[in-house]
């Protein structure tokens, strides 16, 4: 059975999450996902690092899913949370490939790790992550060489 992506779940350094449904995702590019084997905490696991991410998210996703554990997004919204803290560490690509009682069930996921370089000694914020709201969209880029204004010129024009 073919896997169909149903949502992306962003995982922040502090363990909070934000799930964005497929219908709220515009532009999306995950560059060069590879497979590695490494120690995560105490176990050895297969992991999937990528070179970079760019994504455009519609305003309808600026909320907290009740299944997410994020509390900070409840007050200001997830767009403001992402803009304030540059701490997205990884993402789960959630798939649906069966229905139970006419509801899609997430039966599988792929975990993607992003490039990460600590901005300072506390290690929470990622130097490689940039984001910006423009119009009714949030744009996020996680890339060692490019920022959100490099990838999305409309964001750069908004600051001019």
Tell me the β content. over 45%
Low-confidence stretches: none
pLDDT average, as an integer?
A: 85
Strand order of the largest sheet: 2-1-7-8-5-4
How many separate structural domains?
1
Supply the key terms:
160 residues, mainly beta, 4 helices, 6-stranded mixed sheet, globular, 4-stranded antiparallel sheet
Characterize the structure shown.
With 160 residues, the chain is mainly beta. The protein has one domain. It contains four helices and ten strands; from the N terminus they run ββββββααββββαα. It has helices spanning 72-76, 78-84, 148-151, 153-159, and strands spanning 4-12, 17-21, 25-31, 36-40, 43-49, 52-58, 88-100, 103-113, 129-134, 137-142. A six-stranded mixed β-sheet has the order 2-1-7-8-5-4, with no helix packed on it. Strands 3-6-10-9 form a four-stranded antiparallel β-sheet, sandwiched between helices. A hairpin with a 2-residue loop joins strand 9 and strand 10 (137-142). It is globular, with a radius of gyration of 16 Å.
Give a summary of the structure in a few sentences:
With 160 residues, this protein is mostly beta strands. 14% of the residues lie in helices and 48% in strands. Strand 4 (36-40) and strand 5 (43-49) form a beta hairpin.
């Amino acid at each position: 059975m073919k896997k169909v992506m149903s949502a992306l779940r962003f995982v922040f350094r502090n363990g909070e999450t934000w799930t964005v449904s497929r219908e709220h995702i515009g532009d999306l590019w995950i560059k060069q996902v590879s497979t590695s084997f490494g120690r995560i905490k105490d176990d050895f696991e297969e992991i999937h690092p990528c070179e970079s991410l760019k994504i455009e998210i519609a305003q309808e996703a600026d909320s907290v899913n009740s299944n997410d554990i994020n509390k900070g997004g409840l007050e200001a919204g997830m767009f403001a949370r992402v803009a304030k803290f540059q701490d997205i560490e990884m993402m789960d690509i959630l798939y649906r490939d069966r229905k139970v009682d006419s509801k899609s069930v997430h039966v599988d996921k792929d975990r993607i790790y992003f490039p990460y370089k600590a901005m300072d000694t506390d290690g929470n914020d990622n130097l490689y992550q940039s984001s910006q709201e423009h119009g009714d969209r949030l744009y996020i880029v996680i890339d060692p060489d490019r920022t959100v204004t490099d990838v999305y010129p409309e964001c750069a024009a908004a600051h001019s």
